[in-house]
Amino acid sequence: MLASSILDMARAHGQMIVTAESCTGGMIAAALTDIPGSSDVVDRGFVTYSNEAKNQMLDVSAESLDRFGAVSEAVAKEMAYGALVNSKADLAISVTGVAGPGGGSAEKPVGMVCFGLARQGEMPISETVQFGDLGRAHVRTQSVRHALKMLRSALLS
Length: 157
Description:
This protein has helices at residues 2-13, 27-33, 51-58, 62-68, 73-85, 136-156; strands at residues 17-21, 42-47, 91-97, 112-119, 125-130. It is of the alpha/beta class. It has a five-stranded mixed beta sheet, sandwiched between helices. Strand 1 (17-21), helix 2 (27-33) and strand 2 form a beta-alpha-beta unit. The two termini are 19 Å apart.
């Protein structure tokens, strides 16, 4: 299982993980903490659905939220970095997107999800995936899977 392998790798590297989630609403943290013994590598999870929560809990700047919107790589990076700074973790993953069924636009269609990854001593990175308008559950499930793959890749590097 992907989540188990991430926990094993984090354990082997002495790394703690933090999550910062918007459209997945805590599903990444749940995937990791569903596994017994995960508390030794999962520090905490932030569910920051509103812009206000992103700003208050993760220090995402109001300027970034206004300029780029909540669903953007800039905000995903700030979410990941903010989670790292506001935790005892070494590695942070963030996700913000349009899960649907509504809320999309021509620039940010339903199924567009931005991911951020931050680790101690490095600049945060981000990427965007277009999952398509295949239903809210699908977008959220695929977002969790993609985030876990990003964590695994970071732990392998």
